[in-house]
Hints:
The chain is mainly β. The protein has one helix at residues 2-13; strands at 37-46, 51-61, 66-73, 75-77, 84-96, 101-110, 121-131, 137-145, 155-165, 170-177, 185-193, 198-207, 216-225.
Amino acid sequence: MRIILFSLLLVFAWVVADAQQTVFNVPSADVLDSGKIYGELDVTCNVTTDSATFTPRVVLGISHRIEVGLNVNGFGLPGEQSFTPTPTLKWRVYSDTQQKWSWLVGDDVLIPAQNSTYAVGDYVWTEAAHKWNSGTRATFGMYYITGKVAGAKQKVGGQFAFEWPLNSRASFATDWFTGDSSIGYVTPGVILRTSRQLTWYGAYQIGNHALSRGNHQFLFEIGWNFN
Length: 227
């Protein structure tokens, strides 16, 4: 409970901090327009282990097809911090506005600056997305992560997402990274757009492995469109 309360306080403290846009964890098919800036703070709370993590991020649209950003990974309680600036890139390679299909690629470069077990890490991905006239969208793709980033060995797997608008402000969503790793979760939850600028995310992450040992946790996110 102490972790949850502390995490919520940090959410409000970081409301104007914030890389790449995601559904919850999986990169979304959205790309910021040129000159647009988006900020977000992600907080996980594991009541079984009484631990939490904090990830601020910022995203900048540099064209109608490309956005770049910076995630600041490695903050958590309790234990040592592992400050890891992570530049990100998302590129919408293809978009069919009639059939509502898109294809995207991206790259996150992890640059450890504190208590690291590796020099530089990389998360490379590609995915396709289809959006129906109702606004419902499905995303499916695959990823590659270098060794010691999400586990002892390099990882290859699938990444999937589903977004279902409930009304003009609320959506149900879920995303999933396959595999036995530190990103291997299925994450269902709700997205609430309370204003043109402010978006709240609430979800629960369910691990692909070690559930009986507490590998499941709350995920809270707050996003802010600066312009």
